[in-house]
Amino acid sequence: MKKKLIILYMFFAIIPLVIMDAVVLGGILRTENTKTMHEMESVADAVKYTCQEEVETAARLARSIYTSRYIYNYMNREYSSPLEYYDAYRDFFDDTLINVVAGQSNVEYVIYTDNDTIVNGSQFQRIDRCKRQPWYIYTQNTGLDMGLYFFYGRNSAGTTESARRVYFIKKLDYFDHNSNSILLISLDYTKCNTLLSNMNYDMAAYVCDNDRILFSNKKDSNVAQPFRRVTELANIGYTADMQIYNQQLKIHVINNGLNRAGWLKNWGWQLIVLGLINVILPAALMLRINRIAYSYKLREQEMVLTRQHAELHALHSQINPHFLFNALESIRMHSIIKKESETAYMVEKLAKLQRQYTEWDHDNVAIKQELEFVENYLELQKYRFGDRLSYNIEADEECLEYNVPKLTLVTFVENACVHGIESKITNGWIFLRIYKKEDMLNIEVEDTGNGMPEEEATKLLDSMRNASIDMLQQKGRVGVINASLRLKMVTGNRTVFDIDSEEGIGTIVTIKIPIESLKGIV
């Protein structure tokens, strides 16, 4: 029984707990993953906005220059001498605020033109000065009219120090579609990187061009070092596309993994409750199982004691059963020899009945076998009382295979015979009816004897309903108490008893047993 309870404990306690833990923890992890994904999306959006705003600063300057007729006329004017150009150069910057705008935007610009009459200077240079520059070659190869170019090396001024560069390139062909003039705006790389670093996000974000890491919000981007490679990154949790002026970039956000402190802060009490359930529920169920197992063990012990009392009750008048059987067999044989067939028949019935009382191989028997005991007993009583006793046994065919405790039916029939018929002078009947009604097995033992006073019937019914081993030590109808107790035990205390008795009329004892409880009796 305990093994069965442990199996039930596994199926109805441990396995459901494991499933519940998996569901709860899975839900927590999904929630945390969703939260982390939203945070990474927010970081990527913030990085995208910052980068776009910084590039837009250069783009606004480029649009101003691109659409300026004054700048266009200045670039394409034919100058007769360097002096004339110098005077025009000085007048140009006196009349425009282009340098002021560039300074406020923290960008540097150079306009390259194919006008051979200008003198190479800081903001205006002839285009042959840039034709070997990587950015210029890139624009010619790609046919780019406007866009970004990221570069590590020396700048167009020819400095010997290499550094990371960010250029905004715009072809100046607004007034002349055949123009080869180009605007080159140099963004402050350090400023771009600083803006990203000042966002103060815990998650690392990297702006990348193909395999190159251009910017990062972490302080690991050295302007004097070549661009790092994306292959150096680990645990990329989220990637967003970013297109800025014909330049397709990607933003990679690093997943920092589980934040244990934050995780415990958010879900600590749920985990505590879950832990308590995992500890308390199995312990409570195991305690309950132990109690059930202990109760079942006590029940088995009670059944053993009850069976022993039944055996003793059956043998209380027998000193030597084997001697009795031999003596009965001798009487039967002498009766046959003397052709006293009736006496021989009754002795045979008595021997069979006594053998059933003394041979106790099984606690429970089929109803059809129990009915044989009843018939043997009633035949003996009929031999004793003659015409004073008549009986009738009716049992539905479908009820005959159900098992009941041994000698229970005989005990109730015996009680009806002794207390009902024996004290009656006139003729009497004993009826035994066994039938199935709905989900109950009904057993009725009726006698047409003298009946019982209401007080006596109530007392007997109370003894049957509350039968216990202690009652078997008392005098009185211990056989009925014994049978009632055993029926209650094997059916899990689900047997229902009732008595209907009327003085001078007779008594009916009704026993109702749930069919479901009989299926476990073997």
Itemize the secondary structure elements and their pairings:
Blueprint: H1 2-66, H2 69-76, H3 82-95, H4 98-104, E1 107-113, E2 124-126, H5 134-142, E3 146-153, E4 163-171, E5 182-187, H6 189-197, E6 205-209, E7 212-216, E8 228-229, E9 236-244, E10 247-254, H7 260-315, H8 321-337, H9 341-358, E11 364-366, H10 367-385, E12 389-395, E13 403-405, H11 408-421, E14 428-437, E15 440-447, H12 454-465, H13 478-490, E16 496-502, E17 506-514, H14 515-518
Parallel strand pairs: 1-2, 12-14
Antiparallel strand pairs: 1-5, 3-4, 4-5, 6-7, 6-10, 7-8, 9-10, 11-13, 14-15, 15-17, 16-17
Helix pairs in contact: 1-7, 7-13, 8-9, 9-10, 10-11, 11-13
Characterization of this structure:
The radius of gyration is 54 Å and the shape is rod-shaped. It is α+β, with helices and mostly antiparallel strands and 522 residues long. It folds into 2 domains: 40-254, no CATH class; 360-518, 2-Layer Sandwich (Heat Shock Protein 90), CATH 3.30.565. β6 (205-209) and β7 (212-216) form a beta hairpin. It is 51% helix and 21% strand. Strands 2-1-5-4-3 form a 5-stranded mixed sheet, sandwiched between helices. It has a 5-stranded antiparallel sheet with strand order 8-7-6-10-9.
